[in-house]
Amino acid sequence: MVMVRTPDGVNLYAEEHGSGTPVLFIHEFAGDHRSWAPQVGALATRYRCITYSARGYPPSDVPEDPADYSQRHAVADAIAVLDALEVDRAHVVGLSMGGFCTLHLGLEHPERVRSMVVAACGWGSAPDRRSEFRAECEHLADSLRAEGMAKVAERYALGPTRVQLAGKDPLGWRRFAGQLAEHSAVGSANTQLSVQRERPPLYELADRLAGVDLPALVIAGDEDEGCLEPGLMLKRTLPRSGLLVLPKTGHTVNLEEPDAFNRAILEFLAAVEAGRWGRRDPRARGLSSTGLER
């Protein structure tokens, strides 16, 4: 393990396992560095796997001021981890909140990114649900402050896109829920208010994302309603992207279907490193199935 000091003085807890080409994992709101255990176990024999807990997630520091959290801070923190571990470029794997961070790394620091895996990403991006999404973030933050982390975690871990994990893997779900209950209520509330609520929705970034010339694999569960349409938008927008939709799967896709998730990542990374993950053929665009003009 290593403690990484960010430019603004926040300490981030990081771990690395294995050797080879670096892979940086960026966790979701309800996760932390431990959430990637199934992926580290599968990839560490071939890759240098780096995980860390975001600011606000112990054992990383938990700043009290919401102004110390933002999408900009999240991107800067990921770069700080890479710098501290002397990594010039890494494959980046992000889930949900971590998927947003991954995309912003591709936008702002493409020279540091070999490829992107963007999983379960897009919650709150639907244009017609923006106000409702912001209200949900505020309600969750208020609940965390009023009730504490353990109490809120009981309900959050059984939300509409989390029950799938409970049904498939009760032991794994208990581990997930237990780790969630250990999080900081202050850090989680600040993350909701300043990272989640204030981040730009994906659809507003579409023009910029169309210029990100990095290999990308987009992964979504078919029961993760808030991320299905954004996942399809990312596939249509990122010029070097592929889309994998896993059936009967919710938001915690890396824990629900670890074998399929790991296999997809390994195949994607192998294709990228062999130069076989190119841009979409422009002839593949359009709604016609025949290619015959009328």
TrEMBL record:
It comes from the Bacteria. Signal peptide: none annotated. Keywords: Hydrolase. This is Alpha/beta hydrolase. One of its GO terms (molecular function) is hydrolase activity. InterPro entries: AB_hydrolase_1, AB_hydrolase_fold, AB_hydrolase_sf. Residues 22-258 form the AB hydrolase-1 domain. It holds the Pfam family Abhydrolase_1.
